[in-house]
Each structure stands twice: as C-alpha cells, then as structure tokens.
Write a structure and sequence with these properties.
Blueprint lengths: L1 H9 L4 H16 L7 H11 L3 H14 L5 H17 L1 H5 L2 H15 L24 H4 L20 H15 L3 H9 L2 H11 L1
Helix pairs in contact: 2-3, 2-4, 2-5, 4-7, 5-7, 5-9, 10-11
C-alpha cells in the first residue's frame, strides 16, 4: 500500500489525493496503542527507500494537515501529532527538524481546537441509505443525507485537555525528554505556546 501511495505522490497528485494521504498517515500515526504509530509507518517506508519518508513528510503530511477541514480529520491529526512528538523514537533521535515542524503544526491546529459533536440530533432522518443505488433517483442530494463522519477517537472529548494530559504523562514517562526537546528544538515563541501543554 505504501509503495502504491508513494508512486502516485511522485507523479502530479491531485489536491484530493494529497489530503487523503495526510488523513491516512494521521490515522496510522494515531493508532499507536494498536501497534501502529509514526515509527511503524517509517519502518514500512524505509523498506522501500530510506529517504522516501523524509521526502514525503514535509510536503504531503505537514503541508496538507493544515488544509484538513473536517473536525474529525483535524482531531485525528492532533492525536497523531501528539503521539508522534511524545512517543516516536525516530522523530526523537533522527528527525529533529521534523519534530519541531510537527510541533508547529500541532500548535496551529490547537489554536482553533477541533470539536466533534457526538450525536446527530433528532432533526436528521437516516431511513434511506445514501449508498443505495436508487437513492439519487428518488431523493434530492441534501447535506443531511451524507454518511456520518466516523470519529475514531470518541474517548477524546476535549482535545486541548487530552493533549495536555498526554504530554505531561509522556514527559514523566520519558524522564523529561519532551520538555528538553522543546527547549532545544523550538524557537522562543513556540516554546511559550507549548509550555501550557507540558506543565
């Protein structure tokens, strides 16, 4: 799968494909407890070419992340970037600049934290399936008829609070390594912005 994705990215990928790639990467990066995460993606990428990930991450993951519009996708990106900053060995040791850039993108997402509503409410009628082949013939395509976006992290209710709790716990778990990375790798303004999430 990674090889197919990278082959398509080498050509002239559409904006839609670039956004989908960023969403896919963040979903893999956020599923750390399931055995995935950033390091898993990098390992699979390195099996193809050791330089591939470093060529793909800045232009196709970081650059596209800020363009994510749906709150569910932005929330997944926040979870993914937080886990990358806190638990990725490769970013900690090898991609210092990538670590700093990931932190900058995380701060930009947290400037307007994504809020995902839990329920649909009574006003949405979901009797007709959007995937039914005859749906378009009998119903007008309405905004309320779209399939519901799936939240892969329903346990993360308040994104800002979750990031703070996760970073504080990870910093303690790694003997203050994250706090020292912040001091070494980030400019003063970003250090001040991320400080509220580490203490």
């Amino acid at each position: 799968i990674v090889q197919l994705l990278y082959t398509k990215l080498q050509g002239s990928p559409s904006e839609t494909f670039k956004i989908r790639f960023a969403r896919f990467y963040h979903l893999v990066g956020a599923k750390l407890e399931a055995g995935y995460g950033a390091d898993y993606f990098i390992k699979k990428s390195d099996q193809l070419d050791e330089r591939a990930f470093s060529q793909v991450y800045p232009p196709f993951v970081l650059a596209e992340t800020e363009k994510l519009a749906k709150p569910v996708d932005r929330k997944t990106a926040v979870v993914s970037l937080t886990k990358t900053l806190c638990d990725s060995q490769v970013f900690a040791q090898k991609f210092m600049k990538g670590w700093a850039n990931s932190c900058r993108i995380l701060l930009s997402l947290l400037a307007n934290p994504p809020a995902v509503s839990g329920g649909l409410g009574d006003e949405v009628i979901t009797e007709a399936s959007v995937d039914d082949i005859g749906f378009g013939m009998t119903f007008t395509a309405l905004n309320t008829c779209r399939p519901v976006a799936q939240d892969d992290f329903p346990e993360v209710v308040d994104v800002t609070k979750w990031v703070k709790n996760y970073m504080v716990a990870a910093n303690a778990r790694h003997s203050g390594a994250i706090e020292s990375f912040i001091g070494q790798r980030l400019p003063a303004d970003q250090q001040a912005a991320i400080a509220q999430f580490i203490r």
